[in-house]
Design goal:
Elements: H1 2-69, H2 73-95, H3 100-129, H4 135-229, E1 233-237, E2 243-246, H5 248-253, H6 267-271, H7 276-281, E3 294-299, E4 302-310, E5 316-322, H8 324-370, H9 375-401, E6 410-412, H10 414-429, E7 433-439, E8 445-448, H11 450-467, E9 472-483, H12 485-490, E10 497-506, H13 513-518, H14 536-546, E11 550-555, E12 561-570, E13 591-595, H15 599-611, E14 615-619, H16 622-629, E15 637-641, H17 650-660, E16 665-670, E17 678-679, E18 682-683, E19 689-691, H18 696-707, H19 709-715, E20 727-731, H20 735-748, E21 751-755, H21 758-767, E22 771-776, H22 785-795, E23 800-805, H23 811-814, E24 821-824, H24 829-836
Parallel strand pairs: 7-9, 13-14, 13-15, 15-16, 16-19, 20-21, 20-22, 22-23, 23-24
Antiparallel strand pairs: 1-2, 1-5, 3-4, 4-5, 6-8, 8-12, 9-10, 10-12, 11-12, 17-18
Helix pairs in contact: 1-2, 1-3, 1-4, 2-3, 3-4, 8-9, 8-15, 9-14, 10-11, 11-14, 16-17, 18-19, 21-22
Length: about 850
């Protein structure tokens, strides 16, 4: 539109100019024609003058012919010449009526003609009277010749006048002709310019039009591509109901035939292919439903929010949003919130209940030892102790569900765990249940608590036995698994990655969808009253979640059940599991400080430790304990509850105790660990824990394991050795980082030496045999960190390797040995402590 306006504005003045030039061209042509007529007129006047002379000469010829021949036919020529001469003279005078000089010549010519004709008549009359040439005849002829000469001279003057006019008029005609040519040329040039300008404007207009069309087509393609890539379904209809804009998602969400996905289809035809509820939502805005807001509709397993609105330019738009995942996420979130709330409740209950059980069991054990001779009462006390042990197992299950149990994870092969459990499972399940285990080759390791894995498999097996009514087949399958992004989108709590899958399948009755949705809730059970506590699956659920894994139930009524446990893969080598000594219970003479805020629990524990021969000091809180520790009394072991009132945290108490008594050992006890000594679901590396409730024998063995150096070193698997004797070689090319790392290492208690490159590091390794740990960056100048590790391991095969790098890496991809520890920069002192130990 803008370009067309400029074309009109440019063409109109050009056409006006062309019209003006055409007008002048016509005027010049008319003027040139007028000038040309005057030139012709002059030629005609000259011709008349010539005709007058010719006519007079013709009359003279006739006269002389008659005089000579006396033939009368010459008289006719004579008379015709005279008549013609008079007529030509009259015509000359008429033609020169606009020329004063020629008009003045007209009378003279008339007089000369009359004189000449009179002399001719005189000569003719004298010649008629005699045949001889008389003097009179000759004289008359001489007079006639003289008159003829005068006439010729006058005619010559007239002709000269006309020639002069002819020259002027030809020049004027030439000027008019040049003006006409110039005007015509200019008009042609202007016309050509107008045509060229118009053509140029039209071409530019066409180019712009094509560019606009291409741009519009491109924008339309971009819009359509954008619509096709968004998750929401969109369709816009004209006021007539004709489909104008849409994307494929709209038709997919409403399960519409693909042949309807085209422009020109009417809304009524689309409504025929959907249900009545969806058809109402797809209708144009009307008074049946509110025009604003979203309307929920369930269609083919999908939850859709449909929005209908009016387009200001006419027509209406329909937008449908797939909210299935959001609805499922809300359900998962509500379920997670419910489970979390139950977990908090069970944790609090377990803490108080464990304290009660500790008091009960400690006093029962003491009483049972004092009345060994009363067999009946001993049996009753043993029954009470058994009940207390059952209560302890119950609280353990509650803590497992609430993900608040203290795990001691290690790198292990679940396939070997299953193989070791096969005989136990067969004895537990009975002969009516066939047990089959399938372990895939090349099985990955997983970082979990072995005892919890065994408990989980045992719980699932017992549930399967009950579901099969003690007769059927139980299949335990272990294999590697990869949970991809698509699976994670369907299960929002899942992190995509590599897992070790353990599946327990039975041929029992199966479960309904409603039962599956509640299967992990504590105390929920489908077993008859009096059979089962409803805590088996909840305990498995809590353990798997606390270990960073995923659990999934697959079941249908009458088709059996499969429970799959996905435990995260680890690249650490398999560790050997330490076995707690079950030998003879031994006491000791060392001094132990007991810190417990509950009076009854503290009293029972002090009695138990005293009976073992130890010297016991007691404190109600951390403040009293620090006062005792600072009094100068030698204390060998600090036995403290994890959760106590007061401003001083238990971990702070332990740290200050070790500062006051460098050789003191610390043993924690709790029925509910929270996050004081447990992080990410596992015990801190430097923590020893005895969970409540515990028996006298368990307490005795745990105390000796800490106080006896040989037993302590064996139990802790070298990860709790005194690090002060170890020397760390720090290899880092950035001086500031190297200096800071050395300070942190020395603060932890290690010795440190440093090197800026691989060559210096190798020289130190050759010269200092006390270096037991190599901590190096991968990116070093000259010799790379990988090359340094290879050379160092070749020189010192038992050297411990710690890789401190600013980027994450796969050990296999980098080519580092399996025993190398990974420490990602930036790291704090606790992360460094765990990596070195």
């Amino acid at each position: 539109m803008f370009t067309d306006r400029w074309v009109l504005l440019a063409v109109i003045p050009l056409f006006v100019l062309l019209a003006v030039m055409a007008y002048f061209s016509v005027q010049f042509a008319v003027d040139e024609r007028a000038k040309q007529s005057w030139v012709v007129h002059t030629y005609q006047v000259i011709g008349r003058l010539q005709s007058i002379l010719t006519d007079v000469e013709e009359a003279e010829t006739g006269q002389r012919g008659y005089i000579i021949t006396r033939q009368t036919r010459f008289l006719d020529t004579y008379r015709q010449g005279i008549a013609h001469a008079k007529g030509d003279l009259a015509e000359f005078r008429r033609m020169t009526s606009d020329n004063p000089r020629q008009m003045a010549r007209g009378p003279r010519l008339a007089s000369l003609l009359d004189a000449r004709f009179k002399s001719l008549d005189t000569t003719l009359s004298k010649a008629s009277s005699t045949l001889a040439a008389t003097p009179e005849l000759l004289a008359a002829m001489d007079i006639g010749n003289a008159k003829m000469d005068e006439l010729r001279e006058e005619l010559r003057g007239g002709t000269s006048e006309e020639n002069r006019l002819l020259i002027q008029r030809i020049a004027a005609r030439h000027l008019a002709e040049r003006n006409e040519i110039v005007a015509t040329t200019l008009a042609a040039m202007v016309a050509l310019f107008v045509l060229l300008a118009t053509a140029l404007l039209l071409v530019r207009n066409n180019i712009r039009l094509m560019s606009s069309e291409k741009k519009l087509e491109n924008e339309s393609a971009i819009l359509q591509t954008t619509l096709d890539t968004i998750r929401d379904g969109i369709a816009m209809f004209a006021s007539s109901g004709e489909l104008c804009v849409f994307n494929d998602t709209f038709f997919k969400l409403f399960s519409l035939p693909i042949n309807l996905a085209r422009k020109g289809v009417f809304l009524a035809e689309i409504q025929k292919n959907v249900g009545s509820a969806a058809a109402m939502l797809l209708d144009a805005p009307n008074t049946t439903l509110p025009d604003k807001g979203f309307h929920r509709v369930s269609l083919d397993g999908l939850e859709l929010d449909v929005y209908r609105g009016i387009v200001p330019t006419g027509g209406f738009i329909i937008v449908c949003v797939d909210v299935t995942e959001r609805v499922q996420a809300e359900l998962v979130a509500r379920q997670a919130q419910k489970m979390e709330a139950i977990g908090h409740l069970t944790g609090g209950v377990a803490h108080d209940f464990n304290n009660i059980l500790q008091i009960v069991s400690a006093n029962l054990e003491r009483v049972s030892r004092e009345i060994q001779t009363d067999r009946q009462n001993v049996e009753r006390l043993n029954s009470a102790l058994s009940a207390a042990a059952s209560g302890a197992r119950l609280t353990s299950q509650l803590l497992a569900f609430g993900r608040r149990q203290a795990l001691d994870p290690r790198s292990l092969n679940v396939g070997r765990v299953i193989q070791d459990m096969t005989n136990l499972l067969q004895r537990t399940l009975g002969e009516g249940v066939e047990v089959e285990s399938i372990v895939a080759g090349g099985l990955w390791n997983t970082f979990v608590d072995r005892s919890q894995v065994e408990n989980a498999i045992l719980n699932l097996a017992i549930n399967a036995r009950d579901a099969m009514a003690n007769s059927g087949k139980l299949t335990i399958e272990v294999a590697n698994a990869f949970l991809d992004d698509a699976y994670a989108l369907q299960h929002l709590e899942v992190t995509p990655g590599q897992y070790v899958m353990a599946a327990v399948s039975d041929t029992g009755n199966g479960m309904s969808a409603e039962t599956i949705s509640r299967a992990f809730e504590p105390f929920f059970t489908t077993k008859p009253e009096g059979r089962g506590t409803g805590l088996g699956l909840s305990q498995v659920y809590g353990f798997v979640k606390q270990s960073g894994g995923h659990i999934k139930i697959y079941s249908e009524i009458g088709q059996g059940t499969t429970v799959k446990l996905y435990l995260p893969r680890t690249r650490l080598p398999q560790e050997s599991s330490g076995v707690l000594s079950v030998g003879t219970v031994r006491g000791g003479t060392e001094r132990i400080l007991v810190v417990e805020d509950d009076d009854a629990v503290r009293s029972a524990v002090v009695d138990m430790i005293s009976e073992l021969g130890y010297s016991v000091l007691k404190a109600e809180n951390a403040e009293q304990a620090l006062a005792i520790l600072g009094s100068g009394v030698a204390i060998d072991l600090l036995f403290t509850d994890v959760i106590m009132p007061g401003p001083i945290h238990t971990r702070v108490l332990a740290r200050r105790a070790q500062e006051l008594h460098p050789n003191i050992r610390v043993l924690y006890t709790s029925g509910y660990t929270q996050n004081a000594i447990v992080h990410n679901g596992k015990l801190d590396d430097d923590v020893f824990l005895l969970s409540k409730p515990y028996s006298r024998d368990e307490l005795a063995r745990k105390l000796r394991s800490l106080l006896d150096p040989t037993v302590s070193a064996s139990e802790s698997n070298a990860r709790k050795n005194n690090p002060a004797k170890e020397k760390v070689l720090v290899v880092e090319d950035v001086g500031l980082i190297r200096m800071t790392t050395v300070d942190m290492i020395e603060e932890i208690g290690f010795l440190a030496v440093e090197a800026a490159n691989g060559e210096d590091a190798m020289n130190l390794l050759r010269s200092d045999p006390q270096i037991s740990i190599l901590m190096t960056d991968l990116g070093l100048p000259g010799m790379s960190g990988k090359q340094l590790v290879e050379e160092a391991v070749r020189l010192r095969p038992n050297l411990k390797i710690v890789i401190a790098s600013g980027f994450s890496f796969e050990r296999d991809a980098v080519g580092l040995p399996d025993k190398a520890e990974q420490l990602t920069k930036p790291f704090d002192i606790e992360q460094l402590r765990r990596a070195l130990r």
